[in-house]
Design goal:
Radius of gyration: 13 Å
Largest sheet: 3 strands, antiparallel
Structural class: alpha+beta
Helix content: 40-55%
Strand order of the largest sheet: 1-3-2
Shape: globular
Keywords: DNA-binding
Protein name: DNA-binding protein
Number of helices: 3
Number of domains: 1
Order of helices and strands: EHHEEH
């Protein structure tokens, strides 16, 4: 039997990404457009992995 694959938890859209990082949609959009967040644009919508967003902010706290 194969091991179960880990499910990827994605956050779609700048507004939802903003909610995840406790920022207003416009602030999140700016951070996405300038490459400050670990996310990619798929078509015309931003997408980020929830775990990578959390890890991105946690690494700043550890420094």
């Amino acid at each position: 039997m194969e091991a179960a694959e880990a499910k990827i938890d994605l956050v779609w859209g700048a507004a939802e990404i903003g909610k995840e990082i406790n920022r207003k949609p416009r602030q999140a959009f700016h951070m996405l457009e300038t490459g400050l967040l670990p996310a990619k644009k798929v078509g015309n919508q931003w997408v980020a992995e929830r775990g990578k967003l959390r890890a991105f902010f946690l690494k700043d706290e550890a420094a």
